# Entry
Amino acid sequence: MPRYLSIVHVDESTAPADGPSKELMDRMGELIEEITKAGVMLDTAGLTPSAQGTTVRWEGGKLSVTDGPFTEAKEVIGGYALMQCKDRAEALEWTKRFLQVHEPYWTVSCEVREIAEG
# Structure
């Protein structure tokens, strides 16, 4: 079965400064438990805020290192889910359900991509 990576993009300007609500975390935990019991979820995690990140870039034969926050970025990668699904449609369905557990004030999107095997 193919594996899919769902990359969670978050607009940090709409996210609560103190992080997700307890209710959101509870709903997310229930959904993750359901996805895991279905045999789909292989791994998932959230990431720390972009202010704690560092970008290492290779350009023109030189390395540069830039510490966050990254003011030019509106959306940042906030987490990921690695799923093994029968097809792309199933991966998209689980991803849609993940997005729908968020409160309306969040701006969250997921980029779903099949992992190239071999």
User: Anything to note?
Assistant: The first strand starts at residue 3 and ends at 11.
